[in-house]
Write a structure and sequence with these properties.
- By secondary structure, the chain is mainly α.
- It is about 65% helix and about 0% strand.
- Helix 2 runs parallel beside helix 5, helix 2 packs parallel to helix 7 and helix 5 crosses helix 6.
- The longest helix is centred in the C-terminal third of the chain and has 32 residues.
Length: about 180
């Protein structure tokens, strides 16, 4: 994760409270994976649905979310720099990072569901396994703030797995869409 992503996470945490920016980013990633032609306004509509009181985002938040959308489209289509879950800085307590990771997975599943992607779609066996794993990861919690080296390593391995799995789902949906169009 870049320093800019960490800054965005902290900044969005303050701007979006009580919405979890990790969950919101997962939602975006799910929508981008599921939709052949993602729509900026639809993204903002889904993001606003996470607000409890039906309020509107400020223009600053709208601008950040549009930027997020634009960057997400570039990254979802990039093999060189795929999407990385937006999570707290690596210096944050492990429990906070794991909880955010769980929220990101919940958002990803929600976004994929909105895009009607699920185990019944024409997904590869690897993507179907990834969806089952995501459902498990979305339920994970970590009780203590401090983790050992093994916990930290596992955390970073899960992040890499999410990056690769998200790319795999996106490729499967793109391939499925391409095969459904007549030649």
């Amino acid at each position: 994760m870049s320093a800019n992503d960490s800054f965005q996470f902290e900044h969005l945490s303050r701007l979006l409270a009580p919405i979890d920016p990790a969950e919101l980013h997962g939602l975006l990633c799910g929508l981008l994976c599921a939709r052949i032609n993602p729509d900026r306004n639809q993204w903002l509509l889904h993001a606003r649905e996470m607000l409890a009181d039906d309020s509107e985002f400020s223009s600053t938040v709208n601008d950040l979310l549009w930027q997020w959308f634009d960057e997400g489209i570039i990254r979802i289509n990039s093999l060189d720099e795929p999407i990385t879950p937006l999570l707290p800085d690596d210096d944050a307590p492990l429990s906070q990072r794991v909880n955010a990771l769980s929220g990101w997975c919940q958002g990803l599943l929600y976004g994929l569901g909105l895009g009607e992607i699920g185990p019944d779609n024409r997904l590869s066996a690897e993507s179907q396994e990834f969806l089952r794993d995501i459902a498990d990861i979305a339920q994970v919690g970590f009780d203590t703030d401090e983790g050992g080296e093994a916990d930290e390593n596992a955390y970073f391995e899960v992040i890499e797995y999410l990056r690769v799995g998200t790319l795999l789902i996106h490729q499967d949906t793109q391939r499925s869409a391409a095969s459904s169009y007549p030649p």
